[in-house]
């Protein structure tokens, strides 16, 4: 998988999807990374094809490591300031052996790529992919694109890579659903009655 420093949006979108699989985000659903197959589906749905999976399937240890990465990425998305965001990302990237290299694309333009120094585990490859995407988003779109979900029933966060930058929800089809919000209000009201 090529990690290109100029291209942040796919990695930022994947970072959002990954952190929002956590059981602390959509509490009723539980951990949406419930097993190796769920992780594989998340990668496929995001069109992410890591080199680590060319010859191997996702296994239990990959899953554990990606769950740990998910916590590290959540901490980055919750960073209270741009400099904290950069520091936390640098810390995550520093554990992945890699270097930055200028690479020519199929005989045409040149691009800065993050190139692994050796074969990486799935989690390390994803850390590289996500880390540079988050730095690229900060550099290009600014710190205000890292936001908590507006839904009162959701603990999610997201990176807004949309053109207008007016996204409000971490999982628009779930958190932006008025019925969910109405149900939550109703529940709160009922609790208040007793
Ligand atoms: Zn949400």
TrEMBL record:
Domain Zinc finger CGNR residues, every copy: 145-188
InterPro entries: ABATE, ABATE_dom_sf, Znf_CGNR
SUPFAM superfamilies noted in UniProt: Jann2411-like (SSF160904)
Pfam families documented for this protein: ABATE, zf-CGNR
UniProt protein name: CGNR zinc finger domain-containing protein
